[in-house]
Structures are given as structure tokens and as C-alpha cells.
Amino acid sequence: MSIPETLHNEMREWRHDIHAHPELGFQEKRTSDLVAAQLESFGIEVHRGIGRTGVVGVLRNGNSKRSLGLRADMDALPIQEANSFAHRSRHDGVMHACGHDGHTTMLLGAAKHLAHARSFDGTVHFIFQPAEEGIGGAKAMVEDGLFRRFPCDALFGMHNRPGMALGRFAVRSGPMMAGGAFFDIEVTGRGAHGARPESGIDSVLVAAHIATALQSIVSRNVRPVETAVLSVTQIHAGDAYNVIPQSARLSGTVRAFSTEVMEMIGRNIARIAEGVAAGFGATAKADFRPIFPPLINDAAEAEFAAGVCTELVGAANVRRDPPLIMASEDFSYMLAEVRGCYINIGNGDGEGACEVHNPSYDFNDAALPYGAAFFVRAVERKLAR
Ligand SMILES: [Zn+2]
Ligand SMILES: [Zn+2]
What we know:
With 385 residues, this protein is α/β, with parallel strands linked by helices.
């Protein structure tokens, strides 16, 4: 199947409209209004307010009890857009720098096509998720009863990938993207005059030793064949040249592909922080918070997704088992509930190669028909008449 030129043109208009009016996570008021209004205009049943600003469209055809979930994310990022094209962000300091405008549009395009063609037997749930960028939109929808209210036999979603050629897909079986955690370590020493260190306990020195010692976790505690990363990304202490501060705080992030490795790293962060601090006569308290589980694709559904992609663009344009991605993605919460697969779609290696989260990024409109066609074909194959 291919997406007709008229629908491609319409999708481009929706995409530019969404891009021009970006909204941060859980604030997707205008975006969810637009999604709901479009779905309703296609004759699709709409449910709103799932996970605050989330939207679910339900399209039934025939008698089959089978059902499929298709998911797109809707939120933008707190980045000042550097582009000057006509559809640039109208909102200062907010932009669609991750292509969620494109993801939402591709799913809307598929919904419009399927509502008209009715080329399937069963129920399709179009899931428009808020707040993917680190603030828990997928979790909010799941906790709001997403899959209890809209049961799905399988679930699919996709993310654009800059640098991968247009018309190409990448599909990986098993773990695909890392689970993520954030941590904070509060170090308490004893404040003193900067010229009289002997009367204090230097929290800055303790924090520096903790930051160094934490680097032994990935190199010495994680099995070399496993993959993990620990980055200390913030150290805060002191406000004066001549004061040894009483306390210091370190913060950072951990990524890993299994819950066991993640938990082990969390325990070792606490042990090292407390132990190093004690060695200097200070104290440390670590707070470790897993944010996303690792994203794990079901082997059979990955095989299915690769088959759909192959049908659309040919085997030569489907990359099987691409490298693991250390970034996280909260679709993992949904895949922990319902088996399915997350795939990557090429955003272009010339135009479209600018990395996501960059102020010059833009979703490539030429990718829209490929993504919409994937969703349509997945429905027609999974819910074949
Ligand atoms: Zn992003
Ligand atoms: Zn994204």
C-alpha cells in the first residue's frame, strides 16, 4: 500500500501546524484538541484526559475480538528554536526538537486512511501520549487504566532517526533502548573558614572523591559483557571564596539494559558515597530513582514489524538488529504491559540529519508517508479480514 499524495499534503499541513505550536509535557492542550478534532472528523470514537492530556481513538470494524494499539507522542522540549522557516515555533523557548510533531502526524494519517478504507477486522486503538520527555506520560496513561479500558493484543510505536536514510527502517529484537535512573547525593561535612581547613570537614573534597570513585562501578562492578553508563552531571557547593561549605550535592544519571544491573548500580552508588564520606569524617546520603525501565521488544512482534517494513521498502532498506541505544524512551512502560515493538524510521541522511534535541532540528516531511504506511500495514496484517 502507499499513502496517496493528497493525504501526504494534508499530513504536511498538520505537521507544520503542530510544529508551529509546540507544548511541553502535560501541557498539550492545543495539540490534544487538534488530535481529538481530527479523529472525530474521521468518524473515530475519541476518549480524552487519559494520563492528563492523553487521547485515545477507537476504530472498530467487523466482528473480530482482536485489537491492536498504535502509539505516538505529542510533547515538545524547552529549547529555543533556531530555524527560520515559516512553520518555526511561535512559542519562545519551546520547540518540537524530537520530531513528536511528526510522530503524531503519522499516526493521524494512518487513522484517517484506516477510517476510510476499513481494510481490517477488529479494533484499533490510536494512542496519543503526552509528556514523553522524561516526565512520565506513558506511566500516567498506564496508571490511568489505558490497557484495562482499551485492551491491546499487541502494541507498536516508532521514533524518527536522523542520519538514517529516508525510506529506511531499523528493527531490533529484545532490548533496544536503555533503562534510565537519576540520582542525587547529599554530602554533609563541617563548614569552616577557607584559611582554616583543620577546623572543618571539606564537603567539596569529599564530593570530588565520590565523583571519582563512582566511576569504578561501571568499570569494576558491572560485568564487562553488560552495558551501562554512569554520568555525574552536576556538582553544587559553596557561594564564597573564603568559606569551606558545610554541604555539597552531586547529581547524575545511570543507563542500563536490565533491572538487575540498574539495581546493583543503585546499591553501589549508596555504598560508595557513604563509605567515601565516612573515610573523610563526613556523611553522605544517596537518593537513586529509576525513571524508565529498559525498552524491550518482543521477538515475535519484532519479526512481524520487520516483515511489515520489508513489504513497504524492501529487505535492503530494513536494518535488522541495529546497535543498542543508550538513550531511554518511556514507551518501555507500555511495552512492559503489552508485548509489541518499537521501531526507528529514517529521517534522512542529508536533509533531516540534524540530531534530535538540537535547536536546528526539524522532522522530515518526506518521512510522513512511510510511517503512516507502516501503521496502516501493521493493522491490515495483524487484523487481516
Ligand atoms: Zn526527545
Ligand atoms: Zn523523542
